[in-house]
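Need a sequence for this fold. Nothing fancy.
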């Protein structure tokens, strides 16, 4: 068998791939996943979700398929509010053992 190199993930696939703004990309991805879960749980069609969110059906389709170019973090947060979700933003000092602060989405 050929040797296979295994590399441990940092927990952020966007950072592992060397993409720019990896924390923002991960936050947007996490929000889009939660939006998708809510739409699916409510058994909404894309058209119904579009009407509820004030979007076009193609934009809902883009979110559901993870195509988030053109969607800001702020817009995704506002879509969560439109889905009757509370958004709480907490700012705190980073731990001393970490070089810099980070951005993270935690969905309950």
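Here you go.
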């Amino acid at each position: 068998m050929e040797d296979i190199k295994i590399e441990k993930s940092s927990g952020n696939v966007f950072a592992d791939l060397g993409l720019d703004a990896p924390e923002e990309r991960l936050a947007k991805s996490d929000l889009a996943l939660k939006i998708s879960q809510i739409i699916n749980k409510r058994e909404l069609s894309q058209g119904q979700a579009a009407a509820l969110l004030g979007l076009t059906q193609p934009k809902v389709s883009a979110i559901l398929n993870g195509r988030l170019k053109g969607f800001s973090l702020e817009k995704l947060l506002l879509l969560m509010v439109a889905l009757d979700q509370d958004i709480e933003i907490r700012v705190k000092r980073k731990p001393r053992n970490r070089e810099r602060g980070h951005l993270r989405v935690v969905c309950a």
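For context: The first helix runs from residue 13 to 16.
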